[in-house]
Amino acid sequence: MTVARLKPGATLAQARQEIEALNQQTMRDFPDTHKNFGVDVELMQDPSAVKMHTPLLVLMGVVLFVLLIACANIVNLLLARNAARRREAALRAALARTAPAW
Question: Between 53-84 and 86-98, two packed helices, what is the crossing angle to 10 degrees?
Answer without folding.
Answer: 40
